[in-house]
Design goal:
261 residues; alpha/beta; Alpha/beta knot; Helicase, Ruva Protein, domain 3
């Protein structure tokens, strides 16, 4: 395979792009075996091999195996998960794809910015079902959204097309910079650890009345995005979890003493 033409494509981007071996592509409830197989082939074309399937509605059959020509290894090693949270629990940065998000990165911005945000941790790129995309709840689990710009009266893309475009930009970004020295900044905590800290904060902030018990998730979604931008380390996330637990304890003490004003 000839080298990719990368000169001048990523000026000013992070000098150390995301290692392709640390990228997971996550397909949520894919409805067509052929699309899964074509996505595997697109990933293999661009040097990606880690696929996760969330509640797949299909089983891969012989025809899909033919579509995944020379990328059967990606298909066979795909990990299956019961929900999105478990599929991305080990990721430092979770990126969801959306065709309608008002505020979103382009695939090229993802390639240029991901390394700074996830450090030496893993990157998960999440694709929703072909007909409906990610649900609102699933989008809230994502730290960043990516939208592929389209022009004309046909804005929607086939699942495999979207996978190929984003994989291409990530591959190009990785090829555009030589590997430098390891980053001194501690790697960000995994998404699962961040969710544990947010759960502790949720309980504590509900206890002191900061969150509306009828709709706490909206503000928690903003906190999740804030923390994702900050990229806290494992130690920092432990501090946040401890803070949430202490707030919860203080709220319970106030309730017991009746000293609420």
């Amino acid at each position: 395979m000839p080298p990719l033409p990368t000169a001048g494509l990523y000026p000013g981007y992070h000098k150390r792009p995301v290692d392709l071996s640390r990228i997971d592509f996550v397909l949520v409830r894919p409805a067509r075996a052929a699309n899964v197989a074509a996505a595997c082939r697109a990933m293999k074309n661009m040097g990606l091999s880690r696929l996760r399937l969330v509640e797949p509605a299909v089983s891969v059959h012989e025809e899909a195996g033919r579509i995944a020509w020379r990328s059967w290894d990606v298909l066979e090693r795909a990990q299956r998960h019961p929900d999105l949270a478990s599929a991305v629990a080990g990721a430092a940065l979770v990126v969801g794809t959306s065709g309608e998000a008002a505020e979103a990165w382009t695939p090229r911005q993802l390639a240029g910015r991901a390394a700074r945000r996830c450090g030496s941790g893993r990157l998960s790129v999440v694709f929703g079902p072909e007909s409906s995309g990610l649900t609102r709840a699933e989008q809230l689990l994502c730290h960043v959204l990516v939208r592929i710009p389209t022009i004309g009266t046909q804005p929607s893309l086939n699942l495999a097309q979207a996978v190929l475009l984003i994989a291409y930009e990530l591959c190009l970004g990785a090829a555009s910079a030589a590997c430098g020295e390891e980053q001194r900044r501690p790697p960000p905590a995994a998404a699962g650890e961040l969710e544990q800290a947010l759960a502790a904060l949720r309980r504590g902030l509900l206890g002191i009345g900061y969150l509306n018990p009828q709709s706490p998730e909206r503000l928690l979604g903003e906190l999740r995005r804030l923390l994702a931008r900050a990229g806290p380390s494992e130690r920092e996330v432990r501090l946040l979890r401890g803070l949430g637990s202490q707030i919860e304890w203080a709220a319970q003490e106030l309730d017991r003493s009746g000293d609420r004003s």
